[in-house]
Amino acid sequence: MIPFLEDSLKEIQKNTEKKMIHLFTASQANATSENRKLLIKEQKRNSVADLESNCKNYLDKFATSAKGKWVKKHRKHLKV
């Protein structure tokens, strides 16, 4: 009976160690994945902000350099 209990305890210990390793590595992989997603979102926000800033600068320079009715008409289209 004792060898049976000893084997059972070893099996339980082995399974527990496997589960602990799995939980630790899985949580690290999950954290890495979440960090990657957050980084991509931040890069997207920065890219959109840069693009909006560049468009605004272009429209401002366009308005100061060009004159006439056609400019007003095209500025409306560019703002969209």
Automatic annotation (TrEMBL):
It comes from the Bacteria. It comes from Listeria grayi. This is Uncharacterized protein.
